[in-house]
Amino acid sequence: MINIDGKLYKVEKWFLEKDNLNLQDCKVERQTDMAVLVSYKTLKQTETKWIPKSVLKELDLKGSNFERKISKLLTEKTGFKWYRVGVSSGARFTTIGAEKYQGDVTTDNKDFQNVIIECKATKGRITLEDLVNKKSKLWNWIEQSERESVGKDWILFFKSNNGKIFAVERPRLNTLRFEKSYMMGQDNITHKFFNTSNAVVSNFKKLFHIEHYIFWECE
Fold this sequence. Notes:
17% of the residues lie in helices and 40% in strands. The chain has helices spanning 13-18, 64-78, 128-132, 137-147; strands spanning 2-4, 7-11, 27-31, 35-41, 46-52, 56-58, 82-84, 105-107, 115-122, 153-160, 166-169, 173-183, 186-195, 205-210, 213-217. A hairpin with a 4-residue loop joins strand 4 (35-41) and strand 5. The longest helix is centred in the N-terminal third of the chain and has 15 residues, at 64-78. It folds into two domains: 2-57; 60-171 and 198-217, Trna Endonuclease, Chain: A, domain 1. It is α+β, with helices and mostly antiparallel strands.
């Protein structure tokens, strides 16, 4: 986590992994409009690095209530415990350990270690126009979820102020099986594929598809 002018930011995981960075207990030395210079300790010495502000994600502490609600909702629906990943004392993983976890909510259940849960709450309304406008805040959230969870399943839970909770996911293609049949004396091997709705959101009400994305009503 990086503290900039009293606000906490998380560095996107792909940027940390690219240079094998561990920014625990880092300190901001300088900043410009485009980047911040941080100092951090390694095993041998203290080093510095410029971090582009484009890879910083502000931690919305007010959003912790929504994350807490989602962790409780998932616990009720799946039958095992889910936790917030945050920086407050009420979170399962605090500043020291949160960097190695993706998403806003996670679980100790090994069957769901590759599921990234993102939570977004907004004061503004989410309308039908937002669903079809690829430049809307909703689609920015979706693009962010896909970008930060490459190679893993992801689910984005979202709601507007005083509105219902919805979720969206993009199921990955998985090989179901090989079918082998005989036709005119030759082997005919067919690869069959299917979309598997994530076992987490299958507990909710499926609403509709938009392209490859599935939207769910969660309450």
